[in-house]
Amino acid sequence: MSGRVDLHVHSNKSSDGDFSPADLIGFAKDHGMRAISIADHDTVAAYPEAVDLGRRAGVEVIPGIELTTIFGGREFHLLLPLVDWTSPALAGIIASQTGCRMVETSERIDKLRALGFALTMDEVRAKSPDAPPLGVKIAQVLLDNPENEGHPALDLYYRPENRAYGPYMFYADFFAEGKPAYVPKKFVALTDVLEAAPETGGAPVLSHPGAYFQRTTAEDARALKARGLLGMEVYTFYHTAEQMAFYRDLADELGLVATAGSDFHGRIKPHVKFGALPYGDYEMVEALRARTGKGGAA
């Protein structure tokens, strides 16, 4: 059964998303999409509201989450489409992740304050109430604070040509390894999440494997497949045509479901427009359901 899908969009329940679940469902309906998966960072706060809103609008909302994990010393993002948002196993993963991320956030803020920037934990938490804030979100909050606009170290990010991408530029200049506000990554282990995934009901799908911070190799993918990986996000704005071809072939070789996800957020990723990814078919959802033993359409 066919129909357009996007298996990776973020709502304002994410620390860095702009639009409500209702907004996203409206966008999907306007674009004639059959289904979307709201996969917020380290939270399922969009559920069950999103499923109910989607049902009334005639757009299937596939429950999901995007977990930030560590593997081989690198940051890896893992999608869990079809997840049971009430699962105790998922709640345990989220609780562990939240604890790790808030320690990381506190350490980052301490370093930024020591550099002379105006920023508090209360300020960051107020802008990210439903999930622990990502580094880019911390950067956005800092740059949105008018007290920082005159800081000479921030002039580059406030230039009109850089404002849209300022938080990403700031992240690279301050939070990357070896930079002034760097702190070691504090995420749950990807292998631990893969081990627990069957108890959550979700189908583990590797997000944007070719992303600059992830750089997934064929060896990585084989190791993760052996630990329970079921899919790979082949079609994404993170990938060049060459990367799409490489990961499509790798997914075929390993028997992984090749999925499509735009990673739509809103303001923080202005180059990613909702509905603009020219890939994504409902057959991907059916294939994931088959892999998890759920079978059939919803």
Structure in words:
The protein has 298 residues and is an alpha/beta fold. The chain has 2 domains: 5-94 and 187-292, Metal-dependent hydrolases (TIM Barrel); 106-175, no CATH class. It is 41% helix and 12% strand. The protein is built from 11 helices and 9 strands. The chain has helices at 21-30, 49-57, 88-114, 121-127, 135-144, 155-158, 166-175, 190-200, 218-226, 241-254, 282-292; strands at 5-9, 35-38, 60-61, 66-71, 74-79, 188-189, 205-206, 231-235, 257-260. Strands 6-4-5-7-8-9 form a 6-stranded mixed beta sheet. Strands 1-2-3 form a 3-stranded parallel beta sheet, with helices on both faces. Strand 7 (205-206), helix 9 (218-226) and strand 8 (231-235) form a beta-alpha-beta unit. The longest helix has 27 residues, at 88-114. It is globular and about 55 Å long. The termini are close together.
Which structural class do you get from the secondary structure elements? alpha/beta
Counting structural domains, the number is: 2
How do the strands of the widest beta sheet line up side by side?
6-4-5-7-8-9
Mean of the pLDDT scores? 93
Percent of sequence in beta strands: 5-15%
Query: What are the segments in which pLDDT stays under 50 over at least 5 consecutive residues?
Result: none
Largest sheet: 6 strands, mixed
In quaternary terms, these chains amount to: single chain
- Per the CATH scheme, the topology name of the largest domain is TIM Barrel
Percent helix range: 40-55%
CATH homologous superfamily title of the largest domain: Metal-dependent hydrolases
CA gyration radius, whole angstroms: 19 Å
The number of distinct helices, counting runs of at least 4 residues, comes to 11
**Morphology:** globular
Order of helix and strand elements from N to C terminus = EHEHEEEHHHHHEHEHEHEH
- Span between termini: 11 Å
Can you count the beta strands? 9
Could you name the CATH class of the largest domain?
Alpha Beta
CATH architecture of the largest domain: Alpha-Beta Barrel
